[in-house]
Amino acid sequence: MTVDLNAGESLGQTRARSPERPGDAATTIAGRLLDRLGRALFVMIAGAALLAAGAWAIGALVLVETPMPTLRKAIAVAVGIGAIIAAIQVARGARGRALVPAAVALLAILGWYRTIEPSNDRSWLPDVARIPSARIEGDVVTVENVRNFTYRSRDDFDQVWETRQFRLSELDSLWLVMSFWGPRYICHTFVSFGFEDGSYISMSIETRKRQGQHYSAIRGLFRVFGLAYVIADERDLIGVRTNIRREDVYLYRIPIEPLRLRGLFIDYLDGANQLAKRPEWYNAVTNSCGINVLYAFWSGERTHRFNPKLLLNGLWDYYAWQSGNLGPGMTFGEVRAAAAIDALAREGDAGAADTGFSRRIRTRPTDEKDVDWLGDS
Question: Helix (H) and strand (E) counts for the chain?
Answer without folding.
Answer: 12, 10
